[in-house]
Design brief:
Elements: H1 5-24, H2 27-43, H3 51-71, H4 73-78, H5 81-87, H6 97-104, H7 107-118, H8 123-130, H9 134-161
Length: about 160
């Protein structure tokens, strides 16, 4: 299957951008990853087996691009300003207590929650994307739910005291 570029951007652009943002923590880096991922698709010569293969390929390219950005010298020099701005500009009902709690989780739990609950990947798919076993993913999800429960209970109790 040879992908229709515009349809691929329309279909998978949102998930690629959000994956990049969650991994990089910066709007500008997420935009760079988005652009580079779809550029690589435009020059990709091999055919894909099906839509799932295309989707997995795009996500893997985006994740690899994020890793390259995190390793770059420019990223190390950037400082924390981008991180603070980025945390406030995510969009999945961001600003809601649950979204804020999810974004405050350590990366390994945050990614597991986002891939499974928000993006709707199966445990098997999410585990493959994170390069971990399915039982490890289930453990991360369980621990993430426990942490979210603690965070949200604290927040609810703080609001109740006001």
């Amino acid at each position: 299957m040879i992908p229709d570029f515009e349809r691929a951007v329309d279909t998978y652009g949102d998930i690629i951008y959000k994956t990049a943002f969650v991994r990089c923590g910066s709007v500008s880096d997420a935009e760079d990853v988005f652009q580079e991922t779809f550029f690589k698709l435009s020059v990709h010569k091999k055919e894909f087996k099906d839509e799932e293969h295309l989707k997995a390929w795009l996500i893997r390219v985006a994740i690899n691009e994020c890793k390259m950005i995190k390793r770059s010298a420019a990223n190390r020099l950037r400082g924390e300003l981008d991180d603070n701005v980025a945390e406030k500009s995510v969009d999945f009902s961001y600003g809601s207590p649950v979204a804020d709690a999810v974004m405050s989780l350590p990366e390994k739990y945050r990614l597991a929650v986002l891939y499974y609950y928000y993006y709707g990947f199966s445990c098997d798919e999410a585990a493959r994307l994170l390069k971990i076993s399915e039982p490890a993913l289930r453990t991360r999800l369980k621990r993430a739910r426990e942490k979210l429960k603690e965070i949200l209970q604290e927040e609810w109790n703080d609001e109740k005291d006001i």
